[in-house]
Amino acid sequence: MQLLLMAHQYSQVLLQRDEVDAVLLDCSKTFDKLPYSTIVRSLASHGVNGELNVLLSDYLRGRGQRAVVEGYLSSEQPVPSGVPQGSILGPLLFVVAVNNLASKLKSLVMRYADDIVLWRTIKSDEECTALQHDLQCLENWCEETGLKLNPEKSQHLRVSNKIKKVAVPSGSYTIDGKQIHTVSWAECLGVTFSSKMDWTGQVDKVTKKCRQRLYAINGSFPK
């Protein structure tokens, strides 16, 4: 649903002869660094109180981990933060913890697990400045929450059919003073979005994967 909404809204902006700036953000080790206190506090703000809140708190706390190398088992180390990966509750608890993010931003935001896309319709350089301000607010929120954005792996996608595009006043968007690379296509939840909103890249990716699987199948059944 999130992908359909993004594709529809980006296409509508192009039909109106405007532009879209989308910033696809990368959070470093999001599921590992989210503090327990943030999750429990978010649960309480969503009405999860009493014994259920205590139960979920116990589910998160008191966990440990070990490593095995060449048959040797390390001593157990406590896990001070994060949600249990590979579990059903883990992604759900993370979504609850970051659910209040949109209320702190004026730009539109798409969230799915640890994927965050911040975007805004661009009609003037003032819109670019507003998007940069939201990036700063998001960075502050991540610091308060115990998360960290990775500017090197984040991407800026300008969706536009215009020859003369609105320029970003500072040259590029930044996180923690570091530039976010501008790309002509970007992948979100496995779907490739291009700056022209054509689906050539997505079709090429899918057909390539199909050819690889057909080749593997043919190799399993020699003539």
TrEMBL record:
Pfam families: RVT_1
TM spans (from-to): none
Reverse transcriptase domain sequence ranges: 1-204
PROSITE patterns reported in the protein's UniProt record: RT_POL
Name of this chain's protein: Reverse transcriptase domain-containing protein
Source organism of the structure: Ramazzottius varieornatus (Water bear)
